[in-house]
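Private note to self, pasted from the team thread so I don't lose it. C-alpha cells:
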C-alpha cells in the first residue's frame, strides 16, 4: 500500500525541487561556452562533448525506467542526486577538455536517473484528500520559478573569464543537488517493499508498454509536443537573427513572459481543465500549439513590422497557455494509462521525450530555417495537428483488474 504523503513534507519536497532547479538554471545555459573556453577546445568540440553528454543522459533515463520497477524511487532519486552533486563539484577541478567531458558525461547520466526517479516518486504519491494530479501543476510552477531565477542570476555571475567565473556556479549547483538529496531522504515517504516487485520488473518491457494503444498515443503526443512545440519555442533567438522580426532583447522579454504566464496561470488552467473531458482538452492542446506556429509563419510573411510583432506576441502568449494545458491534461494521464508495475517505465519515457525533444526540436528546426523560414513553422504546425487525431480514451489495464491476494 502506498503511504499517505503529509502536506508539510510535500511542501518541503517542492522547496527542494525549486532549489535544485535554481542550481540547474545557474549552470546549464553556459556549459557549452565554458567548454569552448577551456584550453585546446573550440566551439565545435564543445558542441560534440555537450551532445555526447545529452546522449548519456537519454540512455540513463531509459535504464532508470527499468531500474525503478525493482527499486524504491526514493532511494534511486537520492542516489542520483548525490552522484550529480559529486560530479558538479568535480567540475570545479576540470581544467582540461578530456576531464570536463568525462565529468559532464557522469553528471548527465546521474541527472537522467534522478529525473526519471523524481517523476516516478512524485507520480506515485498519495494524499489524504486525493487529487494527486495537482502534483504535475505544482511541479511545473516550481521548476519555472527555480530555473527562471537561476537564469537571471547566472547572467550576473558568469562574466569575463568563463573558466574562472564558472567555478562558483558549479559549486552552487552541487550544493543544490546535495540539498535536494537531503530533502528526499527526510521528506519523501518510504514505500514498503513488494515481494513481487523484481518479478514484475523482469516481466515488463518498453515494447509491451507501447503495445497498449492509450499509452502509445500519450507518449507519441508527448514527444511531438516537446519536439515541435517547446523545442521550436527555443528557436526564437534564431528567428530573431535570421528573419529580422525581433531583437534579442524582445526575445528575452517574450521568454520571460512565457515563464510568467506558466508560473501565474498553471494552477488556474488546471482547475479549468477539470471541467472539460480530457479528450477535449488534449485536442485543444495540440490545436492551440499548431495555431501558435501558424501565427509565427504568418508573421514572417507580413510586410508590417507592427503586424509581425503582434502576431509573434500572440503566438507566444497562446503557446504559454497551451504549455499549461499540456501539464493539466496530458501528463496526469500517464500514470493512469498503464498498470502500476509499468508506471516507472511510462514516466521514464515522458522524461526521455522531454529531453530528446528539447535536443531534436531546435536541431531540426535550425536546419530547416536555413532553407525556408515560414515553411519550417508551417511544417511544425502540421506535425502538431497529428496527435489531435489520436484517440485518448483509456483502455482497461491490468491496474483496473482485481488483484489476487498472495496466500
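Design output:
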Amino acid at each position: 500500500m502506498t503511504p499517505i504523503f503529509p502536506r508539510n513534507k510535500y511542501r518541503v519536497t517542492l522547496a527542494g525541487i525549486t532549489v535544485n532547479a535554481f542550481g540547474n538554471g545557474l549552470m546549464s545555459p553556459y556549459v557549452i561556452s565554458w567548454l569552448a573556453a577551456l584550453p585546446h577546445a573550440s566551439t565545435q568540440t564543445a558542441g560534440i562533448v555537450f551532445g555526447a553528454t545529452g546522449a548519456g543522459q537519454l540512455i540513463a533515463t531509459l535504464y532508470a525506467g527499468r531500474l525503478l520497477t525493482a527499486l524504491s524511487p526514493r532511494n534511486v532519486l537520492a542516489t542520483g542526486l548525490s552522484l550529480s552533486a559529486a560530479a558538479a563539484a568535480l567540475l570545479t577541478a576540470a581544467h582540461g577538455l578530456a576531464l570536463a567531458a568525462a565529468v559532464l558525461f557522469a553528471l548527465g547520466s546521474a541527472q537522467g536517473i534522478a529525473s526519471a526517479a523524481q517523476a516516478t516518486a512524485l507520480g506515485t504519491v498519495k494524499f489524504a484528500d486525493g487529487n494527486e494530479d495537482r502534483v504535475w501543476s505544482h511541479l511545473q510552477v516550481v521548476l519555472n520559478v527555480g530555473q527562471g531565477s537561476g537564469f537571471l542570476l547566472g547572467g550576473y555571475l558568469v562574466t569575463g573569464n568563463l573558466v574562472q567565473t564558472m567555478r562558483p556556479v558549479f559549486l552552487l549547483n552541487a550544493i543544490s543537488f546535495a540539498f535536494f538529496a537531503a530533502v528526499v531522504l527526510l521528506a519523501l515517504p518510504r514505500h514498503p517493499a513488494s515481494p513481487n516487485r523484481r518479478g514484475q520488473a523482469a516481466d515488463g518491457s518498453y515494447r509491451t508498454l507501447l503495445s497498449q494503444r492509450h499509452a502509445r498515443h500519450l507518449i507519441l503526443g508527448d514527444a511531438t509536443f516537446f519536439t515541435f512545440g517547446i523545442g521550436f519555442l527555443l528557436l526564437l533567438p534564431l528567428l530573431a537573427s535570421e528573419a529580422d522580426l525581433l531583437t534579442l532583447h524582445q526575445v528575452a522579454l517574450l521568454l520571460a513572459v512565457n515563464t510568467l504566464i506558466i508560473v501565474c496561470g498553471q494552477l488556474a488552467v488546471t482547475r479549468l481543465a477539470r471541467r472539460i473531458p480530457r479528450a477535449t482538452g488534449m485536442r485543444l492542446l495540440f490545436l492551440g500549439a499548431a495555431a501558435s506556429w501558424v501565427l509565427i509563419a504568418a508573421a514572417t510573411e507580413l510586410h508590417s513590422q507592427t503586424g509581425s510583432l503582434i502576431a509573434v506576441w500572440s503566438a507566444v502568449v497562446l503557446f504559454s497557455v497551451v504549455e499549461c494545458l499540456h501539464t493539466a491534461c496530458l501528463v496526469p494521464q500517464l500514470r493512469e494509462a498503464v498498470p502500476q508495475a509499468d508506471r516507472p517505465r511510462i514516466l521514464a519515457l515522458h522524461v526521455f521525450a522531454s529531453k530528446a525533444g528539447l535536443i531534436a526540436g531546435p536541431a531540426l528546426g535550425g536546419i530547416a530555417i536555413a532553407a525556408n523560414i515560414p515553411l519550417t513553422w508551417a511544417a511544425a504546425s502540421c506535425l502538431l495537428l497529428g496527435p489531435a487525431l489520436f484517440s485518448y480514451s483509456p483502455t482497461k489495464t491490468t491496474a483496473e483488474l482485481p488483484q489476487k491476494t498472495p496466500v
